[in-house]
Design brief:
CATH architecture: 3-Layer(aba) Sandwich
Helix content: 40-55%
Largest sheet: 5 strands, mixed
Strand content: 15-25%
Radius of gyration: 15 Å
Number of domains: 1
Oligomer: single chain
Number of strands: 5
Shape: globular
Order of helices and strands: HHHEEEHEHEH
Length: about 150
């Protein structure tokens, strides 16, 4: 029991640390840390968030719910531009999870083909600039981050 409590305390501390991170820290994260960071960010922005398992997630890293709307999100913490494959994967995930909307969020930017396909498939793309704006909006929010296990 004590080991479980210690592990949960470590996880809570990690969540709190990630929730305060800026874009420079995001650039140094692993892919999974970025997914966890986004789960905290979107919770702070008023979404109910489910983090999917690390693999076998059918293309969705997060499932968001707000105002009755279900949104699947693919997180891409990349050192290069995000390509068309991510848009294809999140489009499939939208149907698999029966969601109304699908987003790809990155710390970088998107290739022209990815942008073109996203426009045709109604996928919302959040690039580096959009992510910074979300972070700033979150920090301006008076809502507390609620961490649940």
């Amino acid at each position: 029991i004590i080991l479980t409590l210690i592990e949960r305390t470590k996880e809570k501390n990690e969540f709190e640390k990630l929730s305060k991170s800026g874009i420079d820290q995001i650039d140094a994260m692993t892919g999974r840390e970025f997914e966890i960071y986004l789960s905290v960010l979107f919770r702070n922005l008023g979404y109910k968030v489910k983090l999917t398992k690390a693999s076998g997630d059918y293309g969705a890293d997060l499932i968001l719910k707000k105002s009755g709307l279900s949104i699947v999100v693919q997180a891409k913490r990349y050192k290069k531009k995000v390509g068309v494959k991510s848009v294809q994967e999140i489009t499939s995930a939208r149907f698999y999870y029966s969601s109304e909307s699908s987003w790809v969020v990155t710390n970088n930017y998107f290739t022209s083909p990815a942008i073109e396909l996203a426009e045709k498939t109604d996928v919302k793309l959040f690039d580096r600039d959009d992510l910074v704006n979300l972070i700033l909006k979150s920090k301006e929010s008076n809502e507390k981050i609620i961490i649940t296990y």
